[in-house]
Amino acid sequence: MELLVVDFSSYGAVVAYSFYSFTVFFSLFSIILYLLRLTKPLCNCDTCRAYLHSTWASDFPNLCDWYTHLISNSPTATIHIHVLNNTITANPDNVEYMVKTNFDNFPKGKPFRSILGDLLGDGIFNVDGEGWRFQRKMASLELGSVSIRSFAFDIIASEIRTRLLPLLADKTTSGAVMDMQDVFRRFSFDNICRFSFGLDPGCLEMSLSDSNFAAAFDLATRLSAQRAMTPSPLVWKIKRAFNLGSEKDLSEAIKLVNTVAEEVIKQKRSRSRALPPDTQNDLLSRFMHSVDDDRYLRDIVVSFMLAGRDTVASVLTAFFHLIMINPHVEKRIRSESDRVLGSSSSEPATFEQMREMHYLQASIYETMRLLPPVQFDSKFVLTDDVLPDGTFVSKGTRVTYHPYAMGRMESIWGPDAMRFRPERWLQSDGVFKPANPFKYPVFHAGPRICLGKELAVMTSKSVALALIRRFSFRAAEPGKRAVFAPGLTTTFRGGLPVRISERTVPW
Ligand code: HEM
């Protein structure tokens, strides 16, 4: 038998050797994939088969709709997807137990850290323990202060007045179809950068040309989220090790995200040298006073970009989607604003006036009930535990609470759970009444409750009001169902195309 002798001195041999190695690795990879397919379906239950073969997709437009269906048929409102080792619950008692009562036993955990680690690093969304406590404390000092409220309100008002309204007004004359999801993402990105980092990327001003960064950020969040959907982490870890397929795309997208985050830090450093310290009251400046490590600062920047951009854009997109289907809600918001602001006023609402608009607030909460920006949120059990509904969860199990399913449960919201009805949030005197956070965990609940909740609600109300008072919106593709793109936050596949016209009301 002849031995294959490779002469490394020749270029051709190196090429042949590379090809040979690639073939071996690729074959190995295929075998592992094949074995995974063979071993995982050890659970042959209907649900696991439907998950693995995606047959649910013939009956439901989205995975979250299928989960909602399964959960609503479960007597405990809890299901288990065996092949994912994922217990998914819409039971408020379970939610309270995992995010508050037994908080320490339900951390983000190692699997979550490794799924999102490449994108989020040690940012607040991806850490437990000391790292989390430190960032939480710093961020709550900033986001919880009273002075920050007016700082944020001024930024939002100026972004609406000087960029958003002129941009849309321009589209009314051209009659063009506009993707409102794209507009809201640009708007939210400008806002969060101005607010968190004291820098203005001017995304809404850039004549709406495509932003490489935005595309890279979207791709990075989508592909990171997809990792969590593979039956075994081995699949994406092997792909990552050999820089193949979606993992190659992810690593390139993250490189671009890193470049932008590093640029944010660099610009911030050079500006802070030029400005007096008392004028630097943004979140990044606060962190920079206590953190030297640029890698850690990068992780903090990326987490806040994710927190502020995608979530707020998501609620605004969902709001306009629902308003166009329910014009009577839009009408009621207008009459409430006429009462508070005066029907002929073209002045923007003040902070105090905004607080008086209970129906508007109810409409935003109702939007997030049916279309929450974060559809589900997972933790990993530290030691064996039993949830209040009697479900046993062993160490290492992924436990997910599901705000999307919870918002649709008749057991929580009554027989009209599927109706968009902002009135359900109002007391008999018309005053907005918040829901129990464990029944409505749209902003999480307990010690890790969202720190940007007030800011997000105020931003959404301000934008919704300013646009509704000035323009009318018509769906460019009426009757289209909401289909979501996979990702960390709710994103409409195909965006939200609308036609905009200036209202003919004299003000
Ligand atoms: C409608 C908009 C928003 C929604 C629905 C929302 C929802 C959430 C949810 C579900 C979590 C928990 C995530 C987790 O388990 O890691 C969270 C955490 C957080 N949110 Fe928000 N968020 C919104 C807007 C914002 C904004 C605008 C900011 C910041 C300016 C922000 C800052 C944060 C931070 C810092 C955390 C981490 C809290 C912690 O881990 O202790 N959020 N948010």
TrEMBL record:
<keyword id="KW-0408">Iron</keyword>
<keyword id="KW-0349">Heme</keyword>
<dbReference type="GO" id="GO:0005506">
    <property type="term" value="F:iron ion binding"/>
</dbReference>
<keyword id="KW-0479">Metal-binding</keyword>
<keyword id="KW-0503">Monooxygenase</keyword>
<dbReference type="InterPro" id="IPR002401">
    <property type="entry name" value="Cyt_P450_E_grp-I"/>
</dbReference>
<keyword id="KW-0472">Membrane</keyword>
<comment type="similarity">
    <text>Belongs to the cytochrome P450 family.</text>
</comment>
<keyword id="KW-1133">Transmembrane helix</keyword>
<dbReference type="GO" id="GO:0016705">
    <property type="term" value="F:oxidoreductase activity, acting on paired donors, with incorporation or reduction of molecular oxygen"/>
</dbReference>
<dbReference type="GO" id="GO:0004497">
    <property type="term" value="F:monooxygenase activity"/>
</dbReference>
<feature type="binding site" description="axial binding residue">
    <location>
        <position position="450"/>
    </location>
    <ligand>
        <name>heme</name>
    </ligand>
</feature>
<protein>
    <recommendedName>
        <fullName>Cytochrome P450</fullName>
    </recommendedName>
</protein>
<dbReference type="InterPro" id="IPR001128">
    <property type="entry name" value="Cyt_P450"/>
</dbReference>
<dbReference type="InterPro" id="IPR036396">
    <property type="entry name" value="Cyt_P450_sf"/>
</dbReference>
<keyword id="KW-0560">Oxidoreductase</keyword>
<dbReference type="InterPro" id="IPR017972">
    <property type="entry name" value="Cyt_P450_CS"/>
</dbReference>
<dbReference type="Pfam" id="PF00067">
    <property type="entry name" value="p450"/>
</dbReference>
<keyword id="KW-0812">Transmembrane</keyword>
<feature type="transmembrane region" description="Helical">
    <location>
        <begin position="12"/>
        <end position="36"/>
    </location>
</feature>
<dbReference type="GO" id="GO:0006629">
    <property type="term" value="P:lipid metabolic process"/>
</dbReference>
<dbReference type="GO" id="GO:0020037">
    <property type="term" value="F:heme binding"/>
</dbReference>
